[in-house]
Amino acid sequence: MRHWFLICLIGSLFSQAVGAHAQSHCIADPENWSETALKRSLSAPLGLPPVPHPHDNPPSVGKIKLGRKLFFDRRLSINHTMSCAMCHVPEQGFTNWELSTAIGVEGRSLKRNSPSILNVAHLNVLFHDGRDHALETQFIGPLTARNEMANPSAGHVVALLNNLPDYAQMFENAFQAQASLDRIGMALGAYQRSILAGNSPFDQWYFGGDETAVIADVKRGFQIFTGKGSCSACHLIGDDHALFTDELFHDTGYGQMREGERQNPPTSIPVQVAPGVVHQMDFSKIRSVSAKREADLGRYEVTEDPADRWKFRTPSLRNLTVTPPYMHDGHFSTLSEVIEFYDQGGSQMLGQDPRIRPLGLTRVEKQDLEAFLQSLMSPDLDCLESEARVLPPDSH
Q1: How far apart are CA 120 and CA 193, in angstroms?
Q2: I need a labelling partner for 40 at 20 to 30 A (CA). Which of 232, 280, 307, 386 fits?
Q3: What total of structural domains would you count in the chain?
Q4: In Å, what is the CA distance from 340 to each residue of 67, 217, 334, 335?
């Protein structure tokens, strides 16, 4: 347990240092940040389509303010220690750099990596396995999961909010009513739909026509992405915008490979104890102090259809350089590892999607492909971080 708190402390300090640097270029005004967020959610940053707001939940300043407060409030967990933002850290691309898989209340482990909520407004299926379809309902699972925020019921959270005086006026302003389960979801949905990050160098070049926005390496990498690499078969690019996902579920061979490793663990593993200092540790010692790693069957866990085993949702590639580690369980630390996996044709397991095949990329082609992926970084992230931190989180 002590180790977990140390990791969180170090991660928090690191995030603050990164965030302080990023926010030096964009400081949100406590008085009007929500108006800026509302305007953004009603517009379409270059490279992104307009946000599809639900007809029964149009965005408003009141909802966005309330949603941000809920997102950062640790009181919404059973022991007042966890908030949504502790797994979706604004300074870390609204995900978590320090942990391959998320950690919830009391250090309880999850088996999947925290997905970023950047541009989540455009997704029709949520979570790595697509088990929810709307931001208005997505939050209920994490609130009540024992290894996340561990509340005994959703009603428990509603009752809590109706007994917290600082929320009364905010719900009144947003809905002219007190807290309820649907209104919590509507506020969280409105806030998350304002977290948009487009207008990347790629967008400025490809959709904006600015030939100087990217270097030659990026343009060559784009040709590999759409050609030899066939990446765009699943990471779609449209005529006037690009979400870089087909929102479908595929078996890339990765899930099967990781399950094989789970069932046949190594005798020792490398453990980094300081930058550049790595020791090999007997794996049995790791297992003696940790929870047993769970199997992960992907989409099958939602549908229980055998055809869905090992399938996971295609992630967007936008802002990829600020959302490591990669894959549904955060096993790959760098983009070069991901590129290498797909270049070798995945794990070449039985049932793997036939589009995942050996690519035969050269060293230079891999570098160009990574340069292209790096060009998908939005310049608006520092503003989103500043808005997120415009007020301190609630924790008492």
Answers
A1: 7
A2: 232
A3: 2
A4: 39, 18, 10, 9
Domain identity same for 317 and 362: yes
256 in the same domain as 188: no
User: Residue 4: what pLDDT?
Assistant: 41
Range of the domain at 276: 249-374
Beta-strand ranges (E) seen in 254-377 are 268-274, 277-282, 312-313
Give pTM, 2 decimals.
0.90
> Within this chain, do residues 30 and 143 fall inside the same structural domain, yes or no?
yes
Instruction: Copy the structure tokens of residue 278.
Output: 């790595």
Q: Are residues 78 and 120 in the same domain?
A: yes
Looking at the structure, tell me whether residues 273 and 185 fall in a common domain. Answer: no
157 and 71 in a common domain: yes
Residue 211's contacts (CB-CB under 8 Å, 6 or more residues apart) are 205
Joined together, the tokens standing for residue 14 give 């690191």
Q: Angle at which helices 165-175 and 61-72 pack, to 10 degrees?
A: 150
Residues 210-263 pLDDT 10s: 999 999 999 999 999 999 999 999 999 999 999 999 999 999 999 999 999 999
Report DSSP letters for 74-132, one per residue: GGGSTTS---GGGTSBGGGTTB-SS-SS-B-GGG-B-SS-----TTGGG-SSBSTT--B
